[in-house]
Amino acid sequence: MRIACWLRRRLVQHGSGESGSAVVEFLGVALVLLVPIVYLIITLGRVEAATFAADGAARDAGRLIAQADTFEDGVAQAAVAVELAFADQGMDVDGASALQVTCEEDPCLSPGAYLHLQVATEVPLPLTPAFLDETLGTTVRVEAQAMTAVDDFREAP
User: Ramachandran region of residue 15, left (φ > 0), alpha (ψ -120 to 50) or beta?
Assistant: First the structure.
């Protein structure tokens, strides 16, 4: 009993030596795990936003071209629609270079013809320095495709 009292007094006088170290260890581990997880969430959010924009832009571009008076007017309207779809997601994309239209028939707006549309762009990864572009791939290619039919009852051009 005397030994237990003596041991208790010694521990109280000198402390355990690890006072507060659990908090420091927790903060260290939390930072090591939290920073990559937050970066991954931000990156996946940007890529997913670009995917949604490309998909919607391809469908809308097809509708605009199929309903346009001329093929050239439809492509011009579709390029603006592509730019707007990406601008809604906070991205700056050139609609004319991102949009590719392939016609099944000649002329493209023949009644019953099909239009194949492809919208593709490169999404830069967030917070990557420019010098890494040469050594690592710091962009993700996002593309979407759509097929649209020209109305059967449309006047032949």
Answer: left
What are the pLDDT digits (tens) for 1-41?
777 777 677 766 665 556 667 788 888 888 889 999 999 99
CB 60 within 8 A of CB 149: no
Residue whose C-alpha is closest to residue 119's, from 138, 140, 90, 146: 146
Tell me how far apart the alpha carbons of residues 57 and 99 are, in angstroms, rounded to a whole number.
9
Phi and psi of 131, rounded to 5°? -70, -15
DSSP output for 55-107: HHHHHHHHHHHHHSSSHHHHHHHHHHHHHHHHHHTT----HHHHEEEEESSSS
60: its two tokens = 């809308």
Q: Which pTM was predicted?
A: 0.79
Backbone φ and ψ of 135, nearest 5°:
-95, -35
